[in-house]
């Protein structure tokens, strides 16, 4: 696996990454390959050893003072890499053990050991590994293993290696599964009878619209729906049981018992795709309200009463045990309305289709999105099948224009992965009287060149250090964009925003030109009646 990691890391060409993985899957034993799949698709093990212990033991083993190790860590920006670089060369030739043995007999047991035994074991493993092996092992220990490949590329590589169509591989990888030899053999078998009744389908996703909607052709060829701001989910009724899966492949049935109750009334062999929303009156509440339900593994009677939810279903993927994904959307829509109307239970409803005779009329209606607590429109071709992942041309999301403010950079922290040595994670403040208060965090939006410039500026203008965070001289102004705003007593500013990101670096503005908290709260007027 270390060699595969190096091969993936050595190229930015997609086809070369896929070929490297496909070659690995052809050659690796099944019991090793399944762990590699798990790690590459984000199924990381829990942290086995805390960072402080790892740092202390690595400094001792290398003979480096703690202060110097700290300086090295600060320069490198990644603990796993720092340890791999600073430890002495291989001191003893360890056994050439396969990956599954390293995981099952070394990595996973580490978290169960007492501190002294843990130290003894970990330092032994470090002595047996070269720098590349230590780096990957350390990443797995800390639960921070990430490689520059998406799940879609892993699926492509598995398909290429096994000859199984990519959509079949994608479906087999959904849901919960154990990293065993048997799982890998089922995953790559020509014929596999799926006995997991709970397994969801891979989600079909949309691209942001490119150009003007009028360029898409006649409006009558498209199904137009509101773009809901909730949790994308599949409601599954199979084998006399009901399951609710999030798009993140998390089983969330216990958090939403009212949705499960509706699922129990659906016909056997039904799978609905939709959005779970907190609901109040005649419209959805904001996502920040729904978060109060997301954070609870089980919902109390009080929470169920105060924050009821609905599943707004916009597709049916399976009915009476038949996979409907190849049918055109127009036909799936008819069957969706029939099954939802048949269930006739309030917590599940079909997403209403928006009727319009022209794209101009759609654009006019889109202006009312924010007051409806939705994000804009979804545009779906009526003849589109339900595909795996994000395919251009069939489904588009046409979001409303974001809200924007000018804010001042007040804190900075290092990024992760390739940006671990750069200050790329920023906290911004706005004026509350004559002082700046923390308003939002943002990590994206700047070019690589701008990031390097801000990083150099942060290093020259650090006022205080709090662990990985640097307080900086308030001097730089940035324009931030976000999708929604609402009052929140969990934030110092008293407001919370949705999806904040950097639009541009306002080099033309001074900090006194930044927005005030009062002006930001004015954005709530007309949205929530604040």
Structural features, described:
- With 530 residues, the protein is of the alpha+beta class.
- It has three domains: 2-142, DNA ligase i, domain 1; 204-399, DNA ligase/mRNA capping enzyme (D-amino Acid Aminotransferase, Chain A, domain 1); 403-524, Beta Barrel (OB fold (Dihydrolipoamide Acetyltransferase, E2P)).
- Helices cover 36% and strands 23% of the residues.
- It has 19 helices and 22 strands.
- Strands 4, 5, 6, 7, 8, 9 and 10 form a seven-stranded mixed beta sheet that branches.
- A hairpin with a 7-residue loop joins β20 and β21.
- α1 packs antiparallel against α2 (14-27), α3 (30-40) crosses α12 and α10 packs across α11 (166-173).
- The radius of gyration is 26 Å and the shape is globular.
- It starts with a helix and ends in a 9-residue tail after the last helix.
- The relative contact order is 0.09.
- The model has no long low-confidence stretch (mean pLDDT 89).
Topology:
Blueprint: H1 2-9, H2 14-27, H3 30-40, H4 51-62, H5 66-76, H6 79-86, H7 99-110, H8 115-128, H9 131-142, H10 151-162, H11 166-173, H12 181-187, E1 204-205, E2 207-208, E3 222-226, E4 231-238, E5 241-246, H13 257-263, E6 270-280, E7 283-284, H14 287-294, H15 301-306, E8 309-319, E9 322-323, H16 329-343, E10 348-350, H17 359-366, E11 376-381, E12 389-390, E13 395-399, E14 403-414, E15 423-432, E16 435-442, H18 448-460, E17 462-466, E18 469-472, E19 477-482, E20 484-487, E21 495-498, E22 501-505, H19 517-521
Parallel strand pairs: 1-12, 2-13, 8-10
Antiparallel strand pairs: 3-11, 4-5, 4-6, 6-7, 6-8, 8-9, 11-13, 14-15, 14-18, 14-19, 15-16, 17-18, 19-22, 20-21
